[in-house]
Structures are given as C-alpha cells and as structure tokens.
Amino acid sequence: MVQGTIKWLNPTIDIMRRRKQGSTDPESAWAVARFNWMQQLLVQFEIIKLTTNNDVVNRNLPSFCIHQITFWDEMHKEQIVGMVGNQLYHFSCDADGKYDPWGMIVGEIGSQLHMK
C-alpha cells in the first residue's frame, strides 16, 4: 500500500552515500588537536624534549611510563547517523514545501555516518 503510494507520487530516488569521519586536511581543527595531543604524550613519555616554546604542550605535567597505562578493548554497537536504508526519495513540492506534482524537486543527496 505505502509502496504503491510512493510510486504514484513519482519521486526522484537517490542512493545514499556513506560519509566518513575525520578529515584529510592537515590544517583541520581535528588534525591540529590530534597533533598537539600526540606532542603532549611524547613529552610526558619523555620520548621527545621540545626545544621551542610551545604554548600548547604543558611541560608542568608529570612524566609517566608505559606501565602506568591500562589498555583494553571494548565492544561497540554500530551507530548510524542519518536515514536508515540506502535510498532517499525526493518529491515535487511548491515554494512552501508542500507536495505539488508540478513543482520542483529539491533536496541534496543524503548521507549516512557510521560511528562507534
């Protein structure tokens, strides 16, 4: 019944694309924060000593060794942000967003973000 109604409304169907987390841009906020975090860890593990004045790394924190860290693995349920399924239906609408068989089809191709 619902599928027949959807076909009768003559939508445009797009395939959802998968969206990835993070960025490949080395200047992105995530990449800069990750770099600063790694510098802080390297200083605290006493693997490197910073010769320049870096206002991001806190030199007053105590050093530590690998034996002070606990590692474990945890199980994650897959989380999907966005619509479920791989198809996105676009319907004709008027300027107010109400269905109009002679209106324009608007909308972008949707995406799904898979996270842990």
Task: Please explain how this structure is put together.
The chain has 116 residues and is an alpha+beta fold. Helix content is 20%, strand content 20%. The chain is elongated and about 70 Å long. The model has no long low-confidence stretch (mean pLDDT 78).
Low-confidence runs: none
Largest sheet: 3 strands, mixed
Portion in helices: 10-25%
**N/C terminus separation:** 36 Å
Give me the Rg, rounded. Answer: 25 Å
Can you count the beta strands? 7
Structural class: alpha+beta
Describe the strand arrangement of the main beta sheet, using strand numbers.
2-7-3
Treating each run of at least 4 consecutive H or I residues as one helix, how many helices? 2
Mean pLDDT: 78
Rough shape?
A: elongated
Secondary-structure element order, N to C? HEEHEEEEE
Beta-strand residue percentage: 15-25%
Give a quick precis of the structure.
The chain is an alpha+beta fold. It has helices at 2-8, 29-44; strands spanning 12-15, 17-19, 79-81, 87-90, 92-93, 104-105, 111-115.
Structure characteristics:
116 residues, alpha+beta, 3-stranded mixed beta sheet, two-stranded antiparallel ribbon, 2 helices, 7 strands, 20% strand
